[in-house]
Write a structure and sequence with these properties.
By secondary structure, this protein is α/β, with parallel strands linked by helices. It is 46% helix and 20% strand. The chain contains nine helices and nine strands. Strands 2-7-1-8-9 form a five-stranded parallel sheet, with helices on both faces. It has a four-stranded mixed sheet with strand order 4-3-6-5. It starts with 6 loop residues before the first strand and ends with a helix.
């Protein structure tokens, strides 16, 4: 089904800068909304149901899995997180552009469900720079960094399955590229016809 809003899916290896780029885009473009996932973990701090996450019980999550309500879901540190198809559809139906941060496997799954999804992969400029960024974060032990580097090699090998590729060498340039992809997608014929259906009808454009 076509919706007036667009769906952007952003994937990248850990340390490539995906979250920072998406956060900066959201601050610049109020028409883009971050997809809100369902989770079985408890709220933290000032988190609110429906804003940071949809907080659900384990049985509720099980029921959603059984009903195929998720376009993708995974277990992380003993808790489960899932992307609801209905939540994405509702926002897109309202005309919002939805953006998801996700791994490459989830991106491919979503593309199989939402044919119009725009998949974007963020690459580091080099393996040396990726390792340096992971080390500068100071969050991971050396063995964890090695695991992330091995996973990154597997993830980068899937880049040809994505519609757009951004090399995050200079953050401002990478952000410009991300904004350009979002804006150009809105101007495509199919996207404009979905978003401005009344104008197309008034001009007798099928």
């Amino acid at each position: 089904m076509d919706y007036p809003g667009n769906l952007f899916v952003v994937a990248a290896p850990s340390g490539a800068g995906k979250s920072s780029l998406v956060k900066a885009l959201l601050e610049l473009d109020s028409h883009v909304q971050l997809s809100v996932s369902h989770t079985t973990r408890a709220p933290r701090g000032q988190e609110r149901h429906g804003r940071e996450y949809f907080f659900v019980s384990q049985p509720e999550f099980d029921a959603m899995v059984a009903a195929n309500a998720f376009v993708e879901w995974a277990s992380v540190h003993g808790q489960r997180y899932g992307t609801s198809k209905k939540a994405i559809e509702e926002r897109m139906a309202q005309g919002a552009d939805v953006i998801l941060e996700i791994d490459f496997q989830g991106a491919i799954q979503i593309k199989s469900i939402f044919a119009n999804a725009i998949c974007i992969f963020i690459l580091p400029p080099s393996w040396e720079e990726l390792r340096s960024r992971l080390e500068r974060r100071g969050e991971d032990a050396p063995e964890v960094i090695e695991m992330r580097m091995k996973n990154a090699a597997l993830e980068v090998a899937q880049v040809d399955k994505f519609d757009f590729v951004i090399i995050n060498e200079l953050f401002d340039r990478a952000l410009f590229d991300l904004k350009a992809i979002v804006h150009s997608q809105r101007l495509k014929f199919a996207a404009q016809r979905r978003a401005r259906a009344e104008t197309f009808q008034a001009l007798n454009i099928p």
